[in-house]
Amino acid sequence: MRKILFLLLTMIGATNIYAGDYAYLTFETTDGEKVSVSAWSQTLTISGNTLSIGGHSFTLSNLSKMYFSASDETTGIRTLSADDWNNITDIYDMKGNKLSKNQMQKGICIVKTSQGTFKITAK
Hints:
The protein contains two helices and ten strands. By secondary structure, it is of the alpha+beta class. The strands form three sheets. It has a four-stranded antiparallel β-sheet with strand order 8-7-9-10. A three-stranded antiparallel β-sheet has the order 2-1-6, with no helix packed on it. A three-stranded antiparallel β-sheet has the order 3-4-5, with no helix packed on it. A hairpin with a 2-residue loop joins strand 4 and strand 5. The radius of gyration is 17 Å and the shape is elongated.
């Protein structure tokens, strides 16, 4: 754990020198989700196994990459929690066809829950 923290802080310090032309810091998780946050005036904190920045929190073991980027690379794809999964009201494929949970196939779906609308990858 300490090695990961040291490597992460070293990477941030080393890339900070070259970050002048990049507006975003992008985090990629092990499931392929990307979240970009503004690279300016952000506070990055690590508490236990959680990295927090700009209102986003990541479990360190679920991060596969972190890098500076010129554009927002947020995919909007997220993992649904068990509560979200139980509160699904509607499911749509990328063509806009309404589906049931049993009709979901591999690929990207739009899911409406009581908490909002999300883009997910069905596996």
